[in-house]
Amino acid sequence: MGIGWGEDIVLEKMRKMLVRDLMNREVKFIKEDASLLDAVWKMKQFGVSSLIVESANKGDGYGIVTRKDLINKLIDPDPGAQHALVADVMTRPAIMVPPNISVSACVKLMKRYNLRRIPVFDGKEIVGVISNSDIFAKFYPGPSVD
């Protein structure tokens, strides 16, 4: 079953949407010297799958730590893993996009770097995070699965 003419127009409009129209504005931050267990607690508390990492040295820019980063380190049998810090597993610098980039361009960037989420930076501060889940929810509002 292919995409009909009407569906094609809708998809094209969605591709041209701007990231600011889909991003999650509830950004949660953590310091790079926080423990991984603190990061787990914060993600669970706020129901998020990533945290933006604030560097002790502002010149280093922002980083990002994801649920996957935490699982890979904490479930890893390396001795002392439970005492690791966010700085030990985070990605820095975080690849970021401006709020006025198209969803299509953002998805190309996500694909190129194998990312599931990207912080949105307005030139002064992080104003949101866009994830593949945000995009999927908008692109496919389709029938509910009950």
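(ticket continues) Second input and output from the same batch:
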Amino acid sequence: MKSKWIAFLAAAACWLLLAAPSWAGNIVIKGSTTVLPVAQKVAEAYMKQQPDVKISLEGGGSGNGIKALVDGSTDIADSSRFIKDKEVSLAVSKGRYPVPFAVAYDCIVPVVHPGNNLENITLDQLARIYKGEVKNWKEIGGPDSPVVVISRDTSSGTYEVWEEKVLKGGLVYPGALLQASNGAIVQAVSKNKNAIGYVGIGYLNKEVKALKVENVAGSAETTLNGTYPISRPLFMFTPGWPKGDTLNFINFVLHPQKGQKYVAEAGFVPLY
């Protein structure tokens, strides 16, 4: 199934690059807070080149972006996960036919307070923490202090990938503190010496400490070569084959020397 989608995406990209008309107007983009920094960087660069085009951006999570796509209130839905079958069915019932474009790669990195002495964590330990089974950091080699679990809310594509790859379908325990964005996770972890959270690689900064997972650091190299265990593509969905301004913008995002340059500047992993 994956190989079919890869072939589809490649064909779509080629079609776009050959078929871009030149229009002017407005583009609305809603969805994932993970994809948001990429969309912001690319949109700013695009509007400098096309000053008659205005692009509005809004976060809120992958689920909300796809909902906006389904109800017709956005031209592009940013998502850090693939669209679900039930979402496709709902969109089709309303005359919309979601088209996926992989625009970047990402890895989800567990983060702790810089004062935490832990350097590496296993997938099993992460699962046990997020299921509420590990209560004190000393149980996994950290300091003798309680673990404060911070997670994304369920509308987040990042949460759904974490649930799939770390929890293996299990649920985050009810005592976890839920945050609405990657930025909110960083802020919460930076202010709590006992906290653990997880963010897309583009959100890492000096305020938090990134942990290795299974002794592999999250990076562009380990994301692309598949050695980092919590990696994923990032998407932009359109409600049908894009046209006009939306088509030109998607072309710009996918172009190796144009939009993909800004993917790297946003701290994420370019396609090429």
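Agent notes: The mean pLDDT is 91. The chain has two domains: 2-105+233-265, 107-224. Closing as not reproducible unless the customer responds.
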